[in-house]
Amino acid sequence: MTRKLAVEVDPAEAGFDPGRLGRLDGYFGRYVDKGLLPGTLAVVARRGKVVYLGEHGFRDVEAGLPVERDTLWRVFSMSKPVTSVAAMMLYEEGVFDLTDPISRWLPEFAEPRVYARGSAQAMATVPATEPIRVWHLLTHTAGLTYGFQHAHAVDELYRKAGYEWWVPRGTDLASAVEQWAALPLLFHPGTEWNYSVATDVLGRLVEVASGQPLDEFFRTRILDPLGMTETGFEAEGDSLDRLAALYLAVPGSDAIVRNDLLAYPVDGRPTYLSGGGGLVSTAADYHRFTQFLLREGELDGVRLLGPRTVALMRGNHLPGHVDLEQFGRPLFAEMPYDGYGFGLGFSVLEDPVKAKTLAPQGEIAWGGAASTAFWVDPANEITALFFTQLLPSSTHPLRQDFRRFVYQALLD
């Protein structure tokens, strides 16, 4: 069943200045009118009720198909919080502890080695001083990386093995994880933060520990119970007609070009089930996921996680409550580094002053490579979603500007 969002309460009744909140239309509209974005859909809700909903432009520029409220989007790394919830459900059931070495379920990680010096052609490694633990995967502190980082000799090894933006054709999750385990780590587990394939490895851990393929676990344990019927690793039938096309920013210009090669396959069950970046979803579905997080693990009478588990996930798990600027490698992430820590599956706003944002401490958030984003603000009971399809997500300051326009309109 296709579900479409609609504005449910007047912004003034929810504590917003309607005129100020309406500035969002001009902001996103200008990006589309100038050809900087193909199309956008933004959602703001308070206390579970939608107060703003704005769509602009096209889901498919070439075909002249407009963005609609039931448009289907590749959400890339906004898949990661779903995988993290899956892992925490197993944690609650006593399947593993957060401090358990992952080699108990993934023996290929029994003896990890760590980069010491040298190039990708002549690299020296040393044994890891600490095993990779479950919490390292949840927090991107395992020492894994992404090939697209282009910042380290280990990144180059990932690319040589065929792992840059996606995986080699025909590769499944189990074989990808085995190949990553054979590559050196960037650093000893738990000593730094680096955005990485860690959540894909976590997805494989969920598969082995639960005895279910990741798509089946998602569907039966999370998506169907939450009523997220249009979220998954594949789209079929009329859903494909609603799927947004993917675009790429042209370096050195304001132009964007369609890029179907970087659009991961969803027309049928994919061979590779990426818990780190393979889902498609709609605004209505992901809105339900944000409400589940806001309501501390429960939605419409369905409880998947206990409140204390969600509180643990929302905490900053970087040692000493430092931010990503202090603990992370200054590479790519879906959020700024200054003032933001990292919880179990998403960023955590630790210091709004350092982050130079109007959002409050305790906000959790993440985004996807195609510039999609979400945040959940427990203090003000606000959730927000933004959808477009432009790679890379660092092209425009959309996420921080979106926050500014929302919070400058909040009056109470």
From TrEMBL:
One of its GO terms (molecular function) is hydrolase activity. Keywords: Hydrolase. InterPro entries: Beta-lactam-related, Beta-lactam/transpept-like, Diverse_Enzym_Activities. SUPFAM superfamilies: beta-lactamase/transpeptidase-like. Coiled coil: none annotated. Signal peptide: none annotated. Residues 25-400 form the Beta-lactamase-related domain. This is Serine hydrolase domain-containing protein. It comes from Amycolatopsis minnesotensis.
